[in-house]
Design brief:
heterotrimer; A mainly beta; B mainly beta; C alpha/beta; A: mainly beta; Sulfite Oxidase, Chain A, domain 2; six-stranded mixed sheet; five-stranded mixed sheet; about 5% helix; globular; B: mainly beta; five-stranded antiparallel sheet; about 35% strand
Chain lengths: ~200, ~90, ~240
């Protein structure tokens, strides 16, 4: 541990609540980027689910936003150690998007505008655990936070909640994504502190 | 080409990469695997620290370098560089 | 542990002063400091009592001499680190420094070519180290500085710069009697404040990313050799 500088607190709140190991509570909403913020024309935006047999199911922005919505309120945990509790979103459950999709795939890769990818087991996208969200805190999701739409998978570290999501690819073989192939954990459970590869 | 200005440049990598490279990295010349443009790492468009450092080609925006620092390990991915040219004393 | 650029060293704050209303100079005593070149920077690491830590980069603004390292900190509203460094850290307290680092954005007195410096806001810090290194070396290499600030009150090192060849750019408010309205740096400013292409100057541009991109583009368009243009970007707001 480094030399302590007296009085330095950073930008954090009190931690009277139970957080995953190694996390700190934050009141703001840090923006982490790996590249330029994509600016997507909603008339050209689409979301595509591609199965392992290359079947595709697509939604335009109008089509996605007309699907039944949910308003999950969830805690989110970033691998850089900040946690934000009680964040409220509006979007479409991934269960709704997968409804009717025939697949035997066990793995998924989320793809984003701008080239970002992240992988996770398909089971972690099902049964009420994941959404494609387009509102945060009652307002349209800003580009800095992944708008127009991002993936939301709050039970895993937040790098799995791909910003600017454009589709999910279902695969029979696992394929580490952008951060997983650069040292981060392949699964990323905050409660087991699975931050880095091999943890 | 991007008009966003959220990036810094390869000078920001000098400290983090001093843990891995024994030479100053900002003067190393890298060749982009995407577009073959060559230039000093100091001129790369750098995003980070975030979850890790990401350095992109200033001409085509392809990722040339990624650096993740864990508690007792670091990972560096240089697949986006065709090669690195490092000036060394004559020997 | 042996010293070297990759080691975090203890640094004790020995002096703090105000350069501007929100800008501070900080002087640290760093035992074992190996010296530094003009233009290099350090990474500063702060650790809270519960172990939370974060790092920021700051350019060294003094010329090398002993174990004293001076940094310039612009207090950013709602910043995580700058308010603490600017006003919270008390004299006698410690932080950690890693450095000096950076071999690209460096001016060495042995280089004979005239020098063009372009500073946007707090980007003046490493360029000030170059100006001071030149004075310390007794060099006669001619320097020209183009310095862009929002307001005359934002000028760092104002007194010291009176002895230099400086062209100021004011982007929000100009001094009384200024002949032109406030505005961003233009190609005409770079031409008037810099060296002609045939003098083959070494150019150093530092500040917010937008400023650096704009000035570097102008220099290239004017015909300056890109290999003699060295840049250091501080990010969207300039830090």
């Amino acid at each position: 541990m480094g030399i302590i500088s007296a009085g330095f607190k950073g930008r954090r709140g009190p931690d009277a609540v139970k957080l995953p190991p190694g996390q700190y509570l934050t009141k703001d909403f840090p923006v982490l980027s790996a590249g330029p913020t994509p600016r997507i024309d909603l008339t050209k935006w689409e979301f595509v689910i591609t199965t392992e047999s290359a079947t595709q199911k697509r939604w335009s922005w109008d089509e996605l936003t007309r699907l039944p919505t949910e308003t999950p309120t969830v805690d989110i945990h970033c691998v850089t150690k900040w946690s934000k509790l009680g964040t409220s979103w509006r979007g479409v459950s991934v269960d709704t998007l997968l409804d009717g999709v025939e697949t035997g795939a066990q793995f998924a890769v989320a793809h984003s505008y701008g080239g970002y990818t992240t992988n996770l087991p398909l089971a972690d996208l099902r049964d009420g655990k994941a959404w494609v969200v387009y509102q945060f805190d009652g307002a349209p999701l800003s580009p800095a936070h992944g708008g127009p739409a991002r993936l939301l998978v709050p039970h895993l570290y937040f790098w799995k909640s791909a910003k600017w999501v454009r589709g999910i690819q279902l695969k029979t073989a696992d394929e580490p994504g952008f951060w997983e192939s650069a040292g981060y954990h392949n699964y990323g459970d905050p409660w087991r502190e699975q931050r880095y590869w091999g943890d | 080409m991007t008009t966003e200005l959220e990036f810094t440049d390869g000078n920001a990598l000098a400290g983090p990469l001093a843990e891995i490279f024994s030479v100053d990295v900002t003067t190393i010349r890298g060749r982009c695997a995407g577009c073959a443009a060559t230039g000093p790492l100091a001129e790369l468009r750098v995003y980070g620290p975030g979850a890790g450092w990401v350095a992109r080609c200033p001409h085509c925006d392809d990722v040339m370098l990624r650096l993740v620092r864990g508690p007792e390990r670091a990972w560096i991915d240089l697949r986006g560089c065709l090669n690195l040219e490092i000036a060394l004393p004559e020997s | 542990m042996a010293g070297g650029p990759l080691t975090w060293r203890a640094a004790t704050l020995v002096e703090r002063w105000s350069e501007t209303e929100s800008g501070r100079g900080l002087a640290f005593d760093v035992p074992g400091w190996p010296g530094h070149l003009a233009g290099q920077h350090v990474d500063v690491r702060l650790t809270a009592e519960d172990g939370y830590s974060t790092e920021r980069s700051y350019s060294i603004s003094n010329a090398a001499g002993g174990e004293r390292v001076e940094l310039t900190v612009q207090r950013v509203p709602d910043g995580e680190v700058s308010p603490y460094l600017a006003d919270g850290l008390t004299v006698g307290e410690q932080v950690e420094l890693r450095g000096p680092v950076g071999g690209w954005f460096v001016w060495r007195p042995a280089v004979a070519a005239p020098v063009f410096l372009a500073a946007g806001g707090s980007g003046i810090a490493p360029l000030m180290a170059m100006i001071r290194a030149r004075r310390q070396a007794g060099s006669t290499v001619p320097f020209r500085l183009l310095y862009s600030v929002r307001d005359p009150a934002d000028v760092y090192y104002a007194k010291e710069l009176e002895a230099e060849d400086v062209r100021f750019i004011y982007t929000r408010r100009t001094p009384d009697g200024w002949p032109t309205p406030p505005g961003r740096v233009s190609a005409a400013d770079v031409t008037a404040g810099g060296w002609p292409v045939d003098r083959q100057p070494e150019c150093f541009v530092c500040g917010p990313t937008g400023f650096v991109e704009a000035v570097a583009d102008v220099l290239v368009t004017l015909g300056h050799d890109p290999r003699r243009i060295r840049t250091e970007r501080f990010g969207p707001t300039g830090g």
